[in-house]
Input
Amino acid sequence: MEQIFTQTVTVQPQDLNPAGNFKLSSLLYYVQEASGGHCRQLSCDWDTLAEKGMFWAVLRHRVVIHRLPHPGQTITVQTWPLPTTRVAYPRAVQALDEEGNVLFEAMSLWVLMDRQTRAMILPSKSGIEVPGIVRGTEIGNPASLAPQAYEQHCLWEVAQADLDQNRHVNNTIYLDRAEQLTGAFGSGRCPREFTVCYLAEARLGQMLTLSWAGSDGDILFLEGTRPRAGENEKAERVFAAKLIFD
Output
């Protein structure tokens, strides 16, 4: 079985935001589609895992952008798994233009979840083996993101269109909602790197507070939280993101 999975995609108009800029969520969509394609080849895809009572979930994405694709461009997306850790299945992605230049690259940490209990399943307990390789070209793993002091806030109610087949908010949606609600990317500035950490499942009808703050104009921090059941309990973090601009 091939350890490196390759597919070609053509950039579509829906990959752009209303301002005509390439959406960061589309980068994550390419990353996830390539990863899913490789999982089908490795017989650990969504349908196969569903029969075993499991599903894939991503803990963190880190993306480094060298140059954004443009509409109509055909790019090559390569992905390969790294050796499995005690808790996660790391996976690398590189996207190349027609001349073989790297457009963007990503490192993601994936875990297996129980479909009923929604608890994480350790690789050693899952029966799922994903052979990994190290090519030496991978970027570093995504780091955790600590809470910040945020300056601006708005509310977001999770809608049906935000959900994926696992019945929670799709990973790409967080960046779309952040862009729509904050107007953060409307200036046309492109981050050279971003990290997204997924800390809890967001479900249909839940009300999230989206908060954001800048740091010297070069870094944007984003966070989504929701209230806990206890009246005096601190809000639960659902996701956090850090965007670094040139």
